[in-house]
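Example 3.2
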Amino acid sequence: QPLDYRMVQNGDEQAGKAWNDTLRANGIFKSPGKTYPSLILSEEDLAITQAAIDKAAQAVAYLEAGQI
């Protein structure tokens, strides 16, 4: 089920940390707050970002499944 802003704000801090840490570990500098894309990003930058997001989503899924 999609989450809205309020649901995310009241969400699992550990999952948020896993998300942000995994993005950073995969070359995406992200503050603990929101993420904003830039119009100056190249196709390669977007591919790197997508790969990092996929890994971060997997890390959160493992965390929620109790595998981390």
